[in-house]
Amino acid sequence: MKNILIICGIAITVYIVYKIYRLQTLDNGLPELMKKGAVILDVRTEKEYKTGHIEGSINISLGTIRERYIELDPEKTYITVCSHGLRSVKAENILKERGFKHIYNGGAWSDLQKTINP
Length: 118
Hints:
Helix content is 50%, strand content 14%. It has six helices and four strands, in the order H-H-E-H-E-H-E-H-E-H. Pfam families: Rhodanese (PF00581).
């Protein structure tokens, strides 16, 4: 019985953390930024990108972002996305370290797509 309570507690905690994460990313004005011309930067691998992506997004994998960031315009606004939101946070931080000022984490690409195309 004690193990079941521990598992339930962990599950509830994970759910709450996920909901907070969603509020901080998807409800942070990202659709509005897109209307103003923000570019979706998908940092998944090329293979993952080919399985599905947001129309109009560009694909530079996290593994190559340190070299390929020079392909991006530091004056533009970018919203980083990946499969679950972890790589997009890393990419956001890398780009900010490189002097990009208008970078936002969009989390999972599929969640952002549902937000912009309900």
